[in-house]
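User: Is it possible to get a 3D structure for a protein together with its bound compound? The compound here is 4'-deoxy-4'-aminopyridoxal-5'-phosphate. I've pasted both below.
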Amino acid sequence: MNTESEIARAARHLLADARAVSKPETAAMPLSRPTAVATGARSPANDAAGRGMAQPQSAADLEGLRAFVRQLRTSDLKLPAALRPLSSVGATLSPAAGMLDIDAVRSDFPILQERVHGKPLAWLDNAATTQKPQAVIDAITHFYAHDNSNIHRGAHTLAARATDAYEHARQTIQQFIGASSPDEIVFVRGCTEGINLLANILAPGLRRGDEIVLTELEHHANIVPWQMVAERTGAVIRVAPLDDRGDVILEAYERLLGPLTRVVSLSHASNSLGTILPVELMTAMAKSRGARVVIDGAQSVSHFPVDVRRIGCDFYVFSGHKIFGPTGIGAVYMTREAQESLPPWQGGGNMIQAVTFAHTTYSGPPAKFEAGTPNIADAIGLGAALDYVTRLGRERIAVYEHELLEYATGKLMAIDGLRLVGTAREKVGVLSFVLPGHDTIEVGRMLDRAGIAVRAGHHCAQPSLRRYGLEATVRPSLAFYNTRAEVDRLAEVVSSLARG
Ligand code: PMP
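Assistant: Yes, that's possible. Here is the predicted structure of the complex:
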């Protein structure tokens, strides 16, 4: 099999699709994917398919893709709309789409009325966790006050109500991220558990020398589970590097992809640098090599619209608590094909059809991947959070946050000596910085005394900071309930520290 020409053919499809969708009259068309080639010949691809791994897709002009990637890097050429991170789609919306009424939004979040050290709380630690609107608090309270029961079992009214509410939440997630069926959504404890689930079910398909591709900006949750699997299987981890701004170097990424690439796992947005990765393009590149693609959506779903089918990934993972929902709940999107070809991870109740001491048959997905009693109340709380975000409007959120990020970037850059780390072309509202002569923890404490909550440390993404010679940064991170006034308070404290 000529792998080079396979890649090239996929690239041509990709470029043709990109051109088609960037025409105004077809701008809403989904990016179509090249279809898989099924040949009987023995090849790394068919070998991989036999182990539950994906097959390479057709492909013809590798140079086309390389040239495209080179162009992207060396000019101000904008990605075609279909390949652009969705934040930019939001950022170009017309004002006719309506503005957020921030005062009204803030009054939905009881905790924003708190005072800390006598000052109004400014919650600028949204990349670590987000605050909860009353609608989420009410949904959880209502469940425990009126509907509490285990699900799927017990022929009584509360079991039926609890099951309906839990399954309704699954459907809400499906619609929120554009999956084709609620069955493609698996509930987990959060993003970390989701990636561990995926690493463990993909592990049996990995052999010595197979490759797992990550990027330098990954959170530890998207590094350590793969390392554990690599140790077990003999697979090798390869890492796509970052440039000085915090963008992934796409030519280097492209060079890492090869016939042994089995899994590519990428953050949609970085929690330490804010970079939004062009995941559609990167997924298409990985799929053209036959790899399975995991997207870590922990820092993206709450900031801009996400459509998993448009991205074309096999898996998408996120945590409820980072999108205004409860802790202890999250979701994994898995394509039907992946769910059917991969084994379960944890065993127990709910995930079986029939058990004898000799043999167990498993339930179909998603139950196959949800052993034991799930976190029912928080799944319902997560559904309420997504409904809340949908009511606000994700495009509106993206526009508002984009403007606030630009404002905050200007304010911080104006402070003498402050070094902003992570200035990628497309960013979520993460502003990592260091102030020479001041320990990051000390800066965090000074801000806390002023009622401003930010994170100081390595943000569980040590490699991404070491790339810039740092062990820690101060990291304010924004959400739609933050205001320019809060950013001004932040800048004032940091400026006074900088002045000494
Ligand atoms: N990935 C990214 C990019 C994150 O920011 C985080 C949380 N900081 C995680 C994964 C892990 O999420 P959780 O701790 O909710 O499992």
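Residues 232 and 252 are 27 Å apart (CA to CA). The longest helix spans residues 157-177.
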